[in-house]
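Why should sequence recovery work at all? Because a backbone constrains its sequence more than one might expect. Tight turns favour small or flexible residues, buried strands favour hydrophobic ones, and helices have their own preferences. The token representation captures these environments compactly. In the example below, the structure is given first.
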């Protein structure tokens, strides 16, 4: 990791992800971690490290608005079938070995994301506060990684999604308050609730995303989070759950489900936003069972969830309502390097242009997360979070998969990500 404080990038094509304009044959100066200037004809200053970018295209670093750090996303039979492997993991987590593993994996996950051009991530549910540990390590300079927003443990009902791993079950309002306050004390940036179940913990394949929290519980958590000055997100894969979250004022509704006209009006006129996550569900639905490692019943359940995610994202797009994008990384098929595929899956699902898809995964996510004054586009005074690629992504989104260089907080990362060739080959077959 370079400690150089100022860079002069020359022979660049700069992409405006908001308007779709390309500034050709340009240069860009980075000073003290921020973009000091950019344009045609600007000159380097004394002390700048000059880099000839050889005609590369520069765009803001990708933003993953929903991920987890506890795994690498490589599918396995043990995870899909909830067998002895998961039982062993639950026993391992409380031990010192488990804690060490979680710290190691969090660090590895963040590095994978950075090396793939992801310069901001929001972790929404991790174990033993390993996400907050990693954030403190990066702030202390132990390693270079993406900007990290954390939530610690999610909160939900005693039988809610993720209890025993990434969630804490709460039976009373007092228990919800206590756990939310603990998360804040530990150093979280967001509060996360699990309003519904998912695929693995559904009662049957026909009812994934069942309600676990009632409206009063959701509203109570929203009011508690907001009273402490924190925004709140909710895992929600059921239309009734989405409605409850909208009425309660949840800031970001993760995943999504089919929307009716009333819900669209609440989204249009309120502050809530949906963050879609195609990366785990689409491959599970689209790939043969022998490749996905899921059972036929689990695939059927995932199809219901995927259709809900796609339907809500499409409805928002058609009604000019912003949608966030996240990989749900750590889930099967959701690698920490896969944000570029998430952008492609979104483009395919809603039928938008390359520019619209690229904006959603950069400036759009920054706006939803409240970071657009800091990152998400190339602008003077913004943090130098940059992804350089060989071709114009406005013409070919797949070029995002091969970064030429990555800058995070003004520091250049020169390392390459780890490849999982078998899994990536399967995923690329869907593009």
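From this structural description, the recovered sequence reads:
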């Amino acid at each position: 990791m370079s400690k150089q404080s100022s860079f002069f990038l020359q022979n660049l094509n700069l992409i405006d992800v908001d308007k779709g304009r390309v500034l050709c044959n340009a240069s860009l100066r980075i000073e003290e971690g921020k973009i000091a200037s950019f344009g045609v004809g600007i000159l380097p200053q004394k002390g700048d490290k000059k880099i000839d970018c050889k005609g590369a295209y520069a765009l803001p670093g990708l933003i993953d608005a929903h991920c987890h750090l506890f795994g690498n996303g490589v599918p396995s039979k043990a995870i899909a079938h909830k067998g002895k492997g998961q039982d062993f993991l639950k026993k391992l987590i409380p031990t010192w070995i488990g804690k060490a593993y979680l710290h190691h994996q969090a660090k590895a996950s963040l590095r994978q994301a950075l090396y793939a051009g992801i310069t901001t991530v929001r972790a929404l549910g991790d174990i033993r506060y390993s996400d907050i540990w990693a954030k403190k390590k990066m702030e202390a300079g132990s390693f270079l990684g993406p900007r990290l927003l954390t939530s610690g443990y999610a909160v939900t009902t005693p039988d809610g999604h993720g209890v025993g791993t990434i969630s804490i079950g709460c039976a009373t309002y007092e228990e919800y308050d206590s756990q939310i306050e603990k998360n804040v004390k530990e150093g979280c940036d967001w509060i996360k609730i699990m309003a519904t179940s998912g695929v693995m913990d559904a009662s049957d394949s026909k009812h994934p995303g069942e309600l676990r929290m009632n409206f009063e519980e959701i509203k109570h958590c929203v009011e508690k989070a907001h009273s402490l000055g924190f925004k709140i997100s909710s895992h929600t894969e059921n239309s009734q759950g989405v409605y409850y979250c909208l009425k309660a004022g949840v800031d970001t509704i993760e995943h999504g489900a089919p929307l009716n006209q009333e819900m669209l009006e609440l989204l249009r006129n309120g502050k809530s936003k949906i963050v879609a996550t195609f990366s785990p569900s689409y491959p599970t639905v689209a790939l043969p069972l022998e490749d996905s490692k899921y059972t036929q019943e689990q695939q059927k359940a995932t199809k219901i969830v995927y259709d809900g995610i796609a339907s809500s994202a499409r409805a928002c797009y058609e009604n000019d309502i912003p949608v966030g994008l996240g990989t749900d990384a750590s889930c099967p098929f959701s690698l920490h390097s896969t944000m570029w595929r998430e952008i492609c899956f979104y483009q395919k699902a809603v039928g938008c242009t390359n520019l619209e898809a690229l904006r959603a995964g950069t400036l759009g996510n920054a706006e939803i997360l409240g970071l657009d004054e800091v990152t998400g586009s190339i602008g003077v005074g913004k943090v130098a979070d940059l992804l350089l690629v060989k071709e114009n992504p406005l013409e070919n989104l797949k070029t995002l998969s091969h970064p030429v260089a990555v800058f995070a907080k003004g520091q250049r990362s020169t390392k390459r990500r780890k490849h999982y060739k078998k899994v990536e080959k399967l995923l690329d077959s869907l593009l």
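A few observations help interpret the result. The first helix runs from residue 77 to 80.
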